[in-house]
What we know:
Layout: H1 4-12, H2 16-20, E1 35-47, E2 53-63, E3 71-77, H3 93-101, E4 105-109, H4 122-149, E5 156-166, H5 168-178, E6 214-218, E7 235-240, E8 250-255, E9 259-265, H6 267-276, E10 281-286, H7 298-316, H8 333-340, E11 342-345, E12 352-357, E13 361-367, E14 373-378, E15 384-386, E16 393-401, E17 404-412
Parallel strand pairs: 3-4, 3-5, 5-6, 6-7, 7-10
Antiparallel strand pairs: 1-2, 2-4, 8-9, 11-12, 12-15, 13-14, 13-16, 16-17
Helix pairs in contact: 4-5
Amino acid sequence: xxxxxxxxxAVVGMxxxxxxxxxxxxxxxxIFTNVDIISDVEYGANVSHDxxxxxxxxxxxxxxxxVEVLRPLVVLAHGGFxxxxxxxxxxxxxxxxxxxxxxxxTASINYRLGFPSTLNLAxxxxxxxxxxxxxxxxxxxxxxxxxxxxxxPYGIDPNQVYIGGFSAGGFISLHYAYLQxxxxxSMVNQNANGLAGGVEGQSGHADYSSAVNAIINVAGAIGDTxxxxxxxxxxxxxxxxxxxxxxxxxxxxTIQGFLPVSEVDGSNSIDxxxxxxxxxxxxxxxxxxxxxxxxxxxxxxxxxxxxxSNFLSHFVCPNVPLDCEYRTISVGSDExxxxxxxxxxxxxxxxxxxxxxxxxxxxxxxxxxxxxxxxGGKMSGGTKCNTSELSNGIYVLRLYVGSQCIDKKVLIQHQx
Length: 416
């Protein structure tokens, strides 16, 4: 086994460099324009529920042209009820991109999906959560392995690692943080396909630590809040009070609102438990909102990103108090001034996306959540682009206005 204490000792003396980077808004505001993406990195492998050996892939996002070499790492998991979704999902990628623009290195992971079809879903669903936890832990261990074995190619600080997720990914992050081997429910068959090894699992890089500093849960739940003990990980929670997919409080988790799965404790119950145990945390309540409103509503996306940046920077930057209130994220004074003179509408867009600016727009580019350009060109009097053939989701419209390059986050949501 690698000597984890020696590895920690080797980097702890350098971790102060991460703290020194916090000047000028880094880790709280958007200070980079572009993001580098490395896709389909294999971080491990394991057997899926049906016995198929499954390679595990992730995408890495980092700020382009960054001179820093020790950046905090944030690993995120997508939603999809453990049967759907991917690392390219619009629930995770925009957050990965924007956090990278703040100076973080981020990763969006795939994890093993699926569970056997049965009328009693409590056991299979819990086992699916376990597989997700095992895979997330392998992803964290993978990044630490690259520091020692590959010369830290991603430029991460292995002492500053955070995890999180949306919906099913929130389930993963919560159980990652609070479920221990002696708390694994008896309904979980640890001899089933790909479930050996307890919560750490056998998805790869067993010689390295899976320890993290704090977690993010957006619209997830935990099997039982009694698994949370004093002194365990800080958490950021966010949840809609009208969520019909994952209970806001303690209630029955169902499939499509009628097929019962099991009783779970949602974010409101988790908040109460964390408060009782005096575990540092924030709880953002989306009043009267449904499941993960940040995916389809720009205002809720902005709020969620603000809360995440507040929460993470408290742990990354020295002397930054925990701020559980909304904060407007700066994108640089020059860009803000130019952006204020430029309007993009409607939001959400359906068939067409329009813009209006006090200065001539000379060129535009439209990027999807993966950073791929899907439209663009020089302007000859036009002020719109056709979005009718694009998929629903969050995009970035880049406008070249005078001497400025302005990025506007836009939502495309078709009415048909």
